[in-house]
Amino acid sequence: MKMPVPDGGIIARRREIVEALRAIVPGEGVIVDENELRAYECDGLTAYRQLPMVAVLPSTVEQVSRILKTCKAMGVKVVPRGAGTSLSGGALPLADGVLLGMGKFKRIIEIDYANRCAVVQPGVTNLGISNAVAHEGFYYAPDPSSQIACTIGGNIAENSGGVHCLKYGLTTNNVLGLEMVLMDGTVLRLGGRHLDAGGYDLMGIVTGSEGLLGVVTEVTVRILKKPATARAVLLGFPTSEQGGDCVAAIIAAGIIPGGMEMMDRPAIHAAEAFVHAGYPLDVEALLIVELDGPAAEVDHLIERVEGIARDKGACYARVSTSEEERLAFWAGRKAAFPAVGRISPDYYCMDGTIPRKALPLVLQRMQEMSERCGLRVANVFHAGDGNLHPLILYDANKPGELEAAEAFGNDILRLCVEVGGVLTGEHGVGVEKRDLMTDQFDEADLQQQQRLKCAFDPDGLLNPGKVFPTLHRCAELGRLHVHQGELRFPDIPRF
């Protein structure tokens, strides 16, 4: 994995850049000390590390605008950063760039129950929104496993999902409005408190754009009323393939659970030892299926789900009988990533999405890959929408194991594309999947995406080195092709 070669001319002007930033953010808001910059050298993808040239921590929209405008005028690259929980290297700093930390934007501005929305700053944590509205019986639906730490700004950058995204959607389905600052300092407002807006879906473009288009400074999110009843059922299977078949059968039956998650044996054992959620330890695959809505409907759907599971070979079934038990079921799943960290010195968390019908085949092929490369894999994923999160277990202290884990992960992602899926479901492309983009998109696709990038950031200063395997200059993308002295379609008027 290679990042853009640092610009020696920019690094030589570091003192000048620091002074310009200190004129905007006084006091301790500009960080230059090497030891203090260590806190920003990587995000959740810790295999890649790089100290930023300087970090700046603004606290107002005006400061963000002035910082970006100044950096554009000086030709300095900027990497936006939220809580740093990205698992794709999306917040990896640049040696010749400014790291723009948005951690001080952590205020809930307004809660509007009448319009069922909340206006928050991007540094508010995902779980913080739900906690702020829980006393009125509301919650914020997207709930990634890192929801206690990840921020809403980062959720927008990666279009995060979570265990309940199957029924209630990802971040893009739950954001009503945005305020964002462009690289030239322009402050834009998109959407609002209304259900939808006319014109181009610019919020849809910004959500999932991984910090390449602008810096989000305010978000209006949709909040939902908590369902009258929610119950979860644990379903155990003798094989992972049978569990995958059950997932597809439940959806095919027209049942859309609030959440449907799957774990294989290594993940089950790690989570149970860590959380003591009451998981069965004699099964190869475990499904957690949550049904919500009116009590009568939930009871009916649970019976149907249990019947489908029996038909698909389930050997274990247990339905939650209290809210505490339901939350315990989910606690194990939410803690699966840290739990796996107890059984391996290191792990590499992947993120690809496949059609649900391909789940049994993909699980089988991943097991074959695991045996060939000699690395174990624990599977934890959002089964309902086909979003896989294989955890490749390795030891970074053993020469070659990191490279083997990366190669294994690349093969998994290529398999996702092969069966009709995509490279990422919610973690983003970042640097992790950047060089695999050509496996999913051809050159015309990538150039069209880069033209969109150019419309927002013509100088390519926002988060360069991420997402695109080859980043053309905007002037190159707009050039006209001349062949033997003639333009294509010479009869078309040009202005």
UniProtKB/TrEMBL annotation:
For this protein, the Enzyme Commission number is 1.1.3.15
One short Pfam name that applies is: FAD-oxidase_C
Q: Name one GO molecular function term.
A: (S)-2-hydroxy-acid oxidase activity
Q: Which domain of life is it from?
A: Bacteria
The cofactor(s) it depends on are: FAD
Listed SUPFAM superfamilies? FAD-binding/transporter-associated domain-like, FAD-linked oxidases, C-terminal domain
Q: Where is the FAD-binding PCMH-type domain?
A: 48-226
Recite the UniProt keywords alphabetically: FAD, Flavoprotein, Oxidoreductase
Q: Which InterPro entries match?
A: FAD-bd_oxidored_4_C (IPR004113), FAD-bd_PCMH (IPR016166), FAD-bd_PCMH-like_sf (IPR036318), FAD-bd_PCMH_sub2 (IPR016169), FAD-linked_Oxase-like_C (IPR016164), FAD-linked_OxidoTrans_Type4 (IPR051914), Oxid_FAD_bind_N (IPR006094), Vanillyl_alc_oxidase_C-sub2 (IPR016171)
Protein name in the entry: Glycolate oxidase
Q: Which organism is it from?
A: Azospirillum picis
